[in-house]
Amino acid sequence: MNDRSLRTRARKAGLATAWRDAAGVSHRVGADTLRGLLRVLEDGAKLEEDALPPMVVGQAGVATVLPLRASSERLAFRLECEDGSVISGHAGRSSDGCARLPAISDLGYHRLEIAGRRTVLAIAPARCRTVADATGGARGWGLSVQLHALRARHDAGIGHFGALADLARQAAAAGADALAISPVHAMFSARPAQFSPYSPSSRLFLNVLLADMRSWFSTHDIGAMMRRLRISPQAARALEDAPLIDWPQAAELRLRMLRGLYDDVIRPAPPAELTAFVAAHGRALHCHAVFEALQAHQLGRGPRGGNWRAWPGALRDPASPEVARFAEERHHDVCFHLFLQWLAARGLHGAGQAARDAGMRIGLIADLAVGTDPAGSQCWANQDDFLIGGSVGAPPDPLGPLGQNWGLTTFSPGALRAHGYRAFIDTLRATLTRQGGVRIDHVMGLERLWVIPEGASAADGAYLSFPGRDLMRLVALESHRHQAVVIGEDLGTVPPGFRTRAAQRSIMGMNVLWFQRDAQGAFLPPDKWGANDVAMTTTHDLPTVAGWWQATDIGWRKSLRQLARGTRAEDALAARARDRDALWAALHPPAAPDPPPVTPDGAARVVDAAARFVGTAASALAILPLEDALGLPEQPNLPGTISGHPNWQQRYPPGPPVLERPDAARRLDLLRTARNRV
């Protein structure tokens, strides 16, 4: 195959054959990269030529052009709406000869019959639910929290949904409208050493290690089980008191306890609530539970058992007789995992209800990870939906000169269209259930993602396009159905015009303090921040305010040899000193013109000023991470590291409830007062 035909095939498959980096330099995608990605894309599900897709996505009040050739100027159609009403009429013909439906105002997923064919017509609102919709026009504020880092009595070393409910009540009492949480997607019960919340096994289900056993079982039951299993109270307390989460040890203890409680209390007489939950979630939940049991069994045979693609052939197919036989033989193991999902869902529902009952006008804001681990249950159960054999990441840029490979896969654009966007809608709904909002990680993925062929370097990838208009419309429709606001994590390399298109759908971007600067490097005044975005001091991947002021992040980068190529630690520290002056020039109150010292006490003053500053931003919503409310110097995650830094292991300080601490209460008051003055 010559280069021209290869590139023609690539463009037809949605691959960009060239890309422009952050400096504006154009790069040509290599032939090996295109061949590797085409093998993945062309083997996947796709629509037949001239087929009417199983779903067409339109917008309320706007005529919908169908990918269907119109044989006449008047083509009869029948639309059965979700509410049972029927709309009949005639489609016209568009300028390119396709059938053109008149504008439909009824929102929802409707059944369309036209020219002897059937499809689902999804009609979305023009925009997502906004903060103003939720607050009656007022600007909102809230907190963000790493859920696993919370502390509660007898938590066995990992934060849980019960602790989240307690924090939601505290935050609501302080006047918060929202509480943004880290991802709670299902992880791998048999692989607790894989604990990054952004590398899930499935985005359809929940991380069972976050379940709060006290949401169903009595203190007596739990104590009796600890004695029966001979679990030392001292060992459990050591895990609870540790400054870092020992994921393998804490997970082993928690799962032993839960299995004992299941066997003794639940298995003899399953509650009706559990039975109803299992029935409601059907095949998808059953497949996830079977996968969990099957992966544990395969791992018992060796480390290769952790990846289903290395299992015996028959076990790679979730519909095979061998998998069905395994599920029958290990029925109680499968049922245990069904129980775990029910208990976790019960806890998350309780936390969301606690937020609403306490008066939050938005409530919990969930976090939707950008992709899924290809070795996980969602890919195993729905192999046609994913680009298995390709991983997503980012091209080389100043923050990652070699590019980034996140080790995750994503949906196949062809399969999305061929299957009526089923996988996307199911994943979005699973995240939005019982939530007041969602943060979509790497939201640019709605339009394009950097995809890397298996075995290639992160730099040897290409941008793959997605049906962005349809996906944004579906986000707006699900936002409306769930009454949820939508935040898009739009940091990094953003496609031209993307932020404008997202804003038109009321998908809020993220205005992070560190990046709100003008061309000369001065920090922008808060009234210049995006009015329809979310203002925040920092994110989980960036330094906390106290850590930034004290250059804690630079210290980590130096010790781990993670400084940008060609950058000396001395140069980085000198640049930070200049940035401190620039930040304080923007933050400081008139009575304190001189920057505070680079000490913990000095950093605390800067955190106070930053909380006030972000509160005065013109943005629709202001979010203060709990790390900054507490003035902590360490960030939850240091991107680019897989060892050396305690990513996703840090816990919040022990002691009184976090928001009752004087420093946290003071900063929340500063933030709240500033919001009320906007």
From TrEMBL:
The lineage of its organism: Bacteria, Pseudomonadati, Pseudomonadota, Alphaproteobacteria, Acetobacterales. PANTHER family: 4-ALPHA-GLUCANOTRANSFERASE DPE1, CHLOROPLASTIC/AMYLOPLASTIC, 4-ALPHA-GLUCANOTRANSFERASE DPE1, CHLOROPLASTIC_AMYLOPLASTIC. The gene is malQ. Residues 52-117 form the MalQ N-terminal beta-sandwich domain. This is 4-alpha-glucanotransferase. It catalyses: Transfers a segment of a (1->4)-alpha-D-glucan to a new position in an acceptor, which may be glucose or a (1->4)-alpha-D-glucan. Belongs to the disproportionating enzyme family. Keywords: Carbohydrate metabolism, Glycosyltransferase, Transferase. The keyword Transferase applies.
